[in-house]
Structure prediction request, 300 residues.
Amino acid sequence: MLGISRAAVWKQIKALRERGYTIEAKHALGYRLLEAPDLLRAAEIQSNLKTVIIGKQVVSFEEIDSTNVEIRKMAEQGAAEGTVVIADRQSAGRGRLGRRWESPSAVNLYCSILLQPQIPVHQAPQLTFLSAVAVAETLNQVCQLSATVKWPNDVLVGGAKIAGLLNEMNAETERIHFVILGVGINLNMTAEQFPDALKYPTTSAFLETGRPVDRGSFLCTFLQLLDQYYLEFQAQGFAPIRRRWEGLCTMMNSAVSVEQPSGAIQGTVVGLDQDGALRVHCANGQIERILAGDVRPLEN
Ligand code: BTN
Prediction:
């Protein structure tokens, strides 16, 4: 059928075995794939994906500086909406506020997704909440965890950070050119692989459950959920995502203190606004809209 010799097939099988695939050979029958290594290969991911927009093009790297940097270059050269870039390891993984994102090889998920939403620029933060919901729900479905979300864009398990989102935008005043959803999820990272000097408690799915996570199938579930929510967002707007995010946020209806450059604000979290601001009901009866700052539960 392929129009190639047995020797050519054997050469490919040999190459796959060298890359960690377990392939059975039976005389006069052929070859059978028994086990694939836990590598994030674009072709495998794409062949397992059932999505409408996200993952129509998947590009994988064994090592890259940062998937966000790479996908930005691709977007500037006209890559299609839904393009996904994944890497096994990042040499310069980027976190929020100029921080570094620890990205050791073969254990976690580092991916960036390109979107071109037809929404006003000020609504772009809504996509951060959409991606946080998809990350938390994938962790809960696939790893049976109780992941929660923390404003503005952290995903936590038992109060420790398990995933981070670095969403970036290219826009002019009136129009979004593209949005990059950068997602880092600690899946199989061990305690020794976390740097000592982190400012906040961190964890991984493996540390929480003691079970290793198959990164490829985790990624497929995540991209499928993201696709489903993005389609829903296009059809129904932010409201369904906002409800899901509020349902996953443990700080909803509880007392918090928000550190801001102008001083601390105290009050009760009552939800999210259209532009992603956190609504805090203060003792004076006013609703404060928090756009930046560190939100902590108020100790009684
Ligand atoms: C945070 O500081 O919480 C955000 C971390 C975001 C890390 C991800 S990993 C994939 C993508 N590429 C990057 O360089 N950063 C994001």
